[in-house]
Amino acid sequence: MKIAIGSDHGGVELKAALLKSISNDVVFFDKGPADKSSCDYPDYGVAVAKAVASGEVDFGVLICRSGIGMSMVANRFQNVRAALCPTVESAVMTRQHNGANVLCLGADNVSVEYAVEIVKAFISTPVDMDQRHERRRWKLERASRLSDASGLMKDDPEVWAAIEAQTVQEDTEINLIASENTSSRACREAAGSVLMNKYAEGYPGKRWYSGCLPVDAAEELARKRACELFGAEHANVQPHCGSAANMAVYFATIKPGDTILSMSLDQGGHLSHGSPVNFSGKFYNIVPYTVDKETEQLDYDALEKQAMEVKPKILLTGASAYPRKLDFKRIREICDKVGCIMMVDMAHIAGLIAGGAHESPVPYADFVTTTTHKTLGGPRGGMVLCKAEYAKAIDSAVFPGMQGGPLENIIAAKAVCFREWMQSEKKDYAQQVVKNCAVLCKTVQDRGYRIVSGGTDNHLFLVDVKSTKGITGKEAAAALDAAGIVVNKNTIPYDTESPFKTSGIRVGTASVTTRGMKEPEMIKIGTWIADVLDNISDTAVQERIKSDAAKLVANFPVP
Ligand SMILES: *Cc1c(COP(=O)(O)O)cnc(C)c1O
After folding, report:
1. Backbone φ, ψ for residue 279 (5° rounding)
2. Tens of pLDDT along 237-256?
């Protein structure tokens, strides 16, 4: 067992005595001080708390005259639970109930012999796994979710109010928005870090500003991990968002007026794939392709025929509302026949790809663009992956082509996110997202609702509420919102309603799966969705479900 120990000048004698008296199976890491000369307790409190927070040691012991200042310092750190224990009983209790991992002692209040007993009791008492204690420990850690930005309560109460409201909203609603997810604490810590203070135009090792070593390290990690995670030859992690990543590829490869063949927005494509209101539609000659009217899926033979006629410079696949798998090998064949660039926008399915729940486009495509905040669950941002031969072109397109200084705090958060995906649990997560989606979809379908393309292979599906119930997507989304279930209205292929009303809703399972929900919860939620839509103007049904939904989500903590 490893224990970090530290004190101030008032506790240095007791520290020396403990080091001498406790030996069995314990390795001490003495964080100082070495002698009795006057010193500042936070310096040593921080050293021990860091050792515990980082996992370097199992426990920490901190001593000052009262033990109070030390406990205050240590409790500033995530994952540290420091307890001031004057008695053996309190040491046992705080281990069992609170899972304390730092013991604070007041040198003025305990004898050496009794302090030895307290330490021994503390390190030998296991944490009580009883459900109520687990729940309370979770709530204790949970308090720090709200305290992430709690300094703002005093510094800027208006902005704080918005953050608090978002926190409560995430806690209490069932979020089925297919493009959203819930970021990890680790990602948010990097995103909110001091790395945001640095100007770093250029790339690691080749910056236009001095003092870039720390951000170089962060960006290098992000690039390396991105390449490793997706098996890519080159990564540019600087695009501020997914649209910017797409813009960078266009800028790197084609000229204004050149032709891009892409999926039209109302069929599931994205704004930045050539919508007339977007830069992409204004600068380039966009030819849209559609899904098959019968199957509502991509018809690759038809796509090939169209591509041979149109002769685009870029064939762009990837979508925001396409519930089926994409056949990248087949798309590569088409691109080779046409002699055009194969570009895949995997913004929605990047997490499924990282987790092995969808085939990867990276071995086939010249360029793969993505967001990092959808199924990938990282910070809001974009990225381009490409073959090594395009590295220089894409890097110059991003900077100086279209962006100035990169957001190094967000880039660090991307690195954190990529590392999380290299852990094996994330593979299970990706599979579970798809399983959950299949079950949720089938539950709604079994209640008589028409599902676009007849089902789903990925993290989302589209419900045609218009043909099933004669209601619009807008009405459906509003009714579900009133019941605590959040989805978005969405056009369906060949929609007869306007994009403001739509005939469909889009439903996704990335966020609820992050909260730990599985098939049984999906059946419940699917039933609620059908109940609400069956009784579209019945506010009593909405209120009943809202209350049931709140009870359900209370068991599934947001990370
Ligand atoms: C979400 C999305 C994007 C870009 O999103 P930003 O909001 O610009 O980050 C790009 N492509 C597709 C397919 C998307 O779904």
Report:
1. -50, -35
2. 999 999 999 999 999 999 99
User: Encoding tokens for residue 303?
Assistant: 């796509």
33 upstream amide cis, omega within 30 of 0 = yes
Identify which of 58, 226, 78 has the alpha carbon closest to the alpha carbon of residue 559: 78
In the block, tokens 């970090």 appear at: 4
Q: Report the DSSP beta bridge partners of residue 234.
A: 386
Instruction: Report the pLDDT value the prediction gives residue 23, as an integer from 0 to 100.
Output: 83
Dihedral sign (CA 485, 487, 489, 493): negative
Distance 48 CA to ligand 1 centre (A): 43
pLDDT over 80 at 201, yes or no? yes
**486: three-class secondary structure by DSSP:** strand
Core vs surface per residue 53-79: b (16+ CB within 10 A) or e = beeebebbbbbbbbbebbbebbbebee
d(CA 503, CA 468): 10
Q: How far is CA 402 from CA 405, 421, 548, in A?
A: 10, 29, 48
**pLDDT, tens only, 380-404:** 999 999 999 999 999 999 999 999 9
Q: Whose CA is nearest to atom 10 of ligand 1?
A: 242
Residue nearest to atom 15 of ligand 1 (CA): 320
Q: Which pLDDT score, from 0 to 100, does residue 147 have?
A: 63
Three-state DSSP string of 181-205: CCCCHHHHHHHCCHHHHCCCCEECC
Which residues surround ligand 1 with Cβ inside 6 Å?
A: 179, 241-243, 270, 272, 318-320, 345, 347-348, 371, 382
What is the whole-number distance in angstroms between the Cα of residue 249 and the centre of ligand 1? 14
* Enzyme catalytic residues: 199, 201, 345, 371, 374, 380
Query: Separation of 243 CA from ligand 1 center, angstroms?
Result: 6
Residue 202 Cα, ligand 1 centroid: separation in angstroms? 24
CA 382 to ligand 1: nearest atom: 9
Amino acid at 259: T
